[in-house]
Automatic annotation (TrEMBL):
Protein name in UniProt: DNA-binding response regulator
Residue list for modification 4-aspartylphosphate: D49
DNA-binding region residue numbers: 122-215
Residue ranges occupied by any Response regulatory domain in the UniProt entry: 1-114
Stretch forming the signal peptide: none
Gene source species: Nonomuraea cavernae
Keyword DNA-binding: yes
Length: 215
């Protein structure tokens, strides 16, 4: 997802907290940078500060709406009157959270929006004896909790969400890591290898040569 906030310390604090929740997060400090990033990345959710200097958050939201950009937009702003909310939602925002906010509520709203940004998925992903609950960040197999790292959890969630379709290493890197990830790194291969060991037998993750991975 993309966090757009001109207060750099707040932006990095929010991004760090979301990454601890297993999300892949990029940061933009102004409206122009936000539109540059959305031009090349497919985000699930854009957390957008409304009161941006230069290109206003309203203009960013309007530009994304006119372009048919698929991400859900959560406006995060100190302007919290009913008229402000109506205006923001009228511009195409999908949700509106006034500052100050509880971080747990921000996470819950982002997860709710992310579920709606792609084809609808059940709240708990199940494949045989494997269960993954994105809300609680708990994955189990045969009733036993799996000790997954945030990245392992993210990769497993992406593979289960694909419902048997092949997910390329590039897609896993783009959606499971942030913009600073090295595209030539072996981190996806290493993470999948660790995930396989933790999932145990019988094996669940198949490598499709020259294509990627699938459950």
């Amino acid at each position: 997802m993309l966090v757009v906030e001109d207060h750099e310390e707040l932006a990095q604090t929010v991004a760090m907290g979301l990454r601890r929740e297993g999300m892949a997060v990029d940061v933009a400090l102004d409206g122009e940078a936000a539109l540059d990033r959305t031009a090349v990345n497919d985000y699930d959710v854009v957390v957008l500060d409304r009161d941006l200097p230069g290109l206003h958050g309203d203009d960013v939201c309007g530009a994304l709406t006119r372009a048919g950009y698929p991400a859900r937009v959560l406006m995060l702003t100190a302007a919290a009157t009913i008229d402000d909310k109506v205006t923001g939602l009228g511009l195409g925002a999908d949700d509106y959270l006034p500052k100050p906010f509880a971080f747990a509520e921000l996470v819950a709203r982002i997860r709710a929006l992310a579920r709606r940004s792609r084809p609808a998925l059940p709240p708990v992903l199940v494949h045989g004896d494997l269960r993954l609950d994105p809300a609680t960040r708990i994955a189990t197999r045969d009733g036993q909790r799996l000790p997954l790292s945030p990245k392992e959890f993210a990769v497993l969630e992406l593979l289960l969400s694909a419902r048997g379709a092949v997910v390329s290493a590039e897609q896993l890197l783009e959606r499971g890591w942030d913009e600073f990830a090295d595209p030539f790194t072996q981190t996806v291969k290493v993470t999948v290898s660790r995930l396989r060991r933790k999932l145990g037998d019988p094996p669940l993750i198949e490598t499709v040569p020259q294509a990627g991975y699938r459950i």
